[in-house]
Sequence to fold (309 residues):
Amino acid sequence: MTYVRESAPPKENAMSTTTLEHPTVAVLGTGIMGAGMARNLLRAGLPVRVWNRTHAKAAPLAADGASVCASPEEAVRGADVVLTVLHDGPSVAEAIDAAAPGLTPGAVWLQSATVGPEATAQLAQRAAELGIVYLDAPVVGTRLPAEQGRLTVLVAGPSTARAAVTPVLDAIGQRTVWAGEEPGAASQLKLVVNTWVINLVNGIAECLNLVEGLGLDPKAFLDTVAGGPLDSPYLQAKSAALLSGDLTPSFALSTALKDARLILQAAEQSGVRLDLVAASAARFTRARAAGHGDEDVIATFFAGRPEQP
Fold:
C-alpha cells in the first residue's frame, strides 16, 4: 500500500530553484470544477489563462480577470503550470496534444481529472515525450469546495516539482496529500476515495427509495439519525438536494458512472471483488438511461423507482 504523507519542503535542486511566486497558470477545462479552481487562482493573484471546449463555459471568467483563449495551444503558451480539469483520459490526451506546440519546456503539468491508473501512465509518458513535468493530481471535493478553494489535492510525482506548484496548490485547496514520487499513486488513492463516495450516495438513495416505497416521511428517517454516529453531513446535504428537487450537479451522475467503471477496472486488475461498486454502476447506468446523467449524483435515486410499463 502506498504511504501517504502531508506536504513537506521540497528537496533543493535545479528544478526547485525555478519556483515563481506568481506562476502563470493555464487551466484547460472550466466546467463544474475547473471554473471554481480558476477563480481561486485569480483571487490568489496568479495570472490565469483558460480554455474550454465549449467556449461559453470559459467566457464568464474574463470578468474575473482570466485571459480566455480560443485553443489549448494559445492557453498554454507562456504558462509555467498547466492544470487539466477535464472529464476523462481521452479528453485530457486530446487537449494536451492540441496544446503541445505552445508548451514551455520544463513546465509543470498538474493533471487533476480522475482518469484511473492506466490512463495516468499513458499521460505521464506523453509528458515525458513533450519535455514537461507530470504531476498526477486528482482532487477530492465537488463544486462548492472547488469554488471555495477547500479541495484536498492528492499529488504523486517528483518532489523536485513541489516548490514550483505550491502557489497553485495553496490557491485551489486547503490540503495537499503527497502520495508518492511516481505518478499513479494519487490516482489509485482517488479511486479508493471515490469508492467510498459512490457507495455512500447509493446507500442514501436506497434508504430514500425504501422510505418512498413504504409511504414514510423522509424527515422521520433523517431526524432519527441526526446528530448520532449514523449521521453525516453528506447524508443530510444529498437528501436535502433530492427532496427539494435541486439536482444542480456538484458531482454529475455521468461522471460518477465513469469513475465507477474505472474503479471496477482497477479492482479487476488487482484481483479484488467490489460487489457494491458493481451494483452502483448498474444503478448509475439505469439513471442515466432515464435522462438523469447531467444531474447531481443523488439522481441515482430514480434508478430505484419501479420501472414504468
About this structure: The beta strands are 5-6, 25-28, 48-51, 67-68, 81-84, 108-111, 133-136, 139-140, 151-156, 173-180. The longest strand covers residues 173-180.
